[in-house]
Amino acid sequence: MTTSTTVDILAGGSRTGRAPRLLAPAAVAALGLAAMTATPAWAHDELISSTPEADEVLTESPEEIVLEFTGDGLTEGENITNEIRVTDDDGESWETETVIDGPSMSTELDGELADGEYEVLYRVVYSDGHDEEGSFSFEVDLPEGAAETDAAETDAAEADAAEDEAGDGTTDDDAAEADAAETDAAEADAGETGSVDADAASQEDPATAEGQFPAWAAVLFALGGVLIVILAVVLMRRKMTQVEEWKQAPRQPRDTTGSTGTADDQSGDDRPDERDDRPRDDA
To answer: Is the dihedral of CA 56, 61, 65, 70 positive or negative?
Structure first.
């Protein structure tokens, strides 16, 4: 009796001790399943890539900064800030307007970046309303000579912009002076071209150049012809005037007696004949 009872107690005790051992693995499995189910609800969107990448060394200046995030897209609206900032070692900002395109955010750079380290700071509001701020840095290390070329191009661009602004502020007088200067330059070019053509023509045909009648001689001949015509007209008018004066002058009555003597001789008929008073010598 004692022996059988002891065996039964030992057997029952062994069956009772197996229960906790079986419950422990089940509890662990249940907790793991619950954790796997709850993980997506606890996770937030995050930055997955950037251009340029964090700590990347670039051999040329980038044109823009692009950030890619997980999720369906960033939240936009009034009083919601999604922004990218790019600063250099001196704290100068190089970003422009931030553009949102779904889950991506980008900004173009305001000019060419010189050698140095740059920091990208961003703030985003995800689709679930969670906001985040982060930062990373990259470096620009241009090859030798590229920095000088970029500086020269920048100076040239600034000079062109200054000239354009100055051109916009010119007055009508300045524009007129500019037009006059262009006209003078065009006339000078035309004169030089004409002289060159004339010289070339004289060199190509010397005989024609030597036999050409000078213009001043033609002018002199023309003036001489005009003077001759004027002189002829004056002489003709003078001749006509003399003829008119001769026609209008009073005329003396003509002697119809046929005497060729003078008036004194003709009037002698009234005087006594002196020859009759003289004595005659009859002998």
So the answer is: negative
